[in-house]
Amino acid sequence: MSFLQLLDSKPVLLLDGAMGTQLDKHGLMGTGRNNLDAPQTVSEIHQAYSQCGCNALTTNTLTMNRIYLETHNVDVSVQEVNRAGVELADRAAVCSQYVLGNMSSTGQLLEPYGTYTEAQFHESFREQAEILAQAGVDGFIIETVFDLREAACAVAACKEASSLPVLASIAFATETKDGRTMMGDTAAQCATRLTEAGADVVGANCGDLDPSQTAQVVALLKQATDRPIMAQPNAGKPQLIEGKTVFDMSPEQFAQGIGECIGAGARIVGGCCGTGPEHIQAVEKIIPRV
User: Fold this and answer.
1) What distance in Å separates the CA atoms of residue 146 and residue 57, rounded to the nearest whole number?
2) Which of 276, 279, 272 is CA-nearest to residue 104?
3) Which helix (H) or strand (E) holds 11?
4) How many CB atoms lie within 10 A of CB 171?
5) Where are the chain's structural domains?
6) Residue 239 — pLDDT band, cuts 50, 70, 90?
7) Phi and psi for 241 in degrees, rounded to 5?
8) What is the pLDDT of residues 113-145, one digit of tens each?
9) Which CATH superfamily is domain 12-284 in?
10) CA 58 to CA 275: how far, in whole Å?
11) pLDDT over 90 (residue 243)
12) Given pLDDT bands bounded at 50, 70 and 90, which one contains residue 246?
C-alpha cells in the first residue's frame, strides 16, 4: 500500500515531531553533519517517534540541498548525507510505518530579492529528490518554506525526479488577512500555486503561529484546494529566555490544538519546532480511528 493509499483508507494520518529542536537538546542543532557524525543520536530520536505510533517518519535531511550546503559552508557530500538520513529513518521505522524524504529551503532568495534563479533552485531540489528517491523513501515532504515561489520550485523538482507523492507545507506569519506568509502570499494563493505545481498534499507548518492559529489557516487552505491538508504547528509561540529560544506548550495543550486543526479539515498532522515524542504521543490518543 502506498502512502497516498493509506491516506485514502484513514480519516487522519499522524507524522512525527521536530528533529532540529530534539537535536538541540544534545547540542547538535545546525551542524549539518549529524547523520554522519552522530548517527546514534539521530537514530534514537527516530526510534522515540516510531514508538509513538505515528504513520510516517521524516528523514533528517531538511536543508541538505546543494545550495544550502555550499552557501553555509557545510563540508559534506549531498549524496552521502541524504542517503545516510534515509537509512537512519528506515532502520527506526517498523513495517507499518513509511519514510518521507524531508526537504526545505535553500536559505537563499530568488531574483529580484536575491541572486538565484528558479532554474538554479529547481536543479538543487531535483538533485536532492533523486538521491532521496533512490535511497528508498516513500514520498517527499517539503516544509518550513517561507517563499511560495521556492516551494513551488521544490514541488516541481520532486515531480520531475520521481513519481512518489509530494507533501508541500508553507510557513505562515499570520492567520489574519486571509492567512499570510512573510512574503505576503495568502493561504489561498499558496494552496492554488502548490496544487498547480503538482503537490499531492498541501499544508502549513512552523512559522509564527500556535496550533489554534494554524487551524484557522487549515480552514483557508481547505477552501482553496481539493488536495488533503496537512498541519504541523510548533509547540506554541517561541520565547527568548536567557538568550535561548524556548517552546513551552505542554503535550496536552498541543494535542488540543491539533484537535482544532483536524476539526478545520487537516487529514495529516504532526509537530514542528519544540515538539517531541511526548507531544506526538498525546496527539496519537486523539486521532480519529474511523
Assistant:
1) 23
2) 272
3) none
4) 23
5) 12-284
6) confident
7) -120, 115
8) 999 999 999 999 999 999 999 999 999 999 999
9) Homocysteine-binding-like domain (3.20.20.330)
10) 14
11) no
12) confident
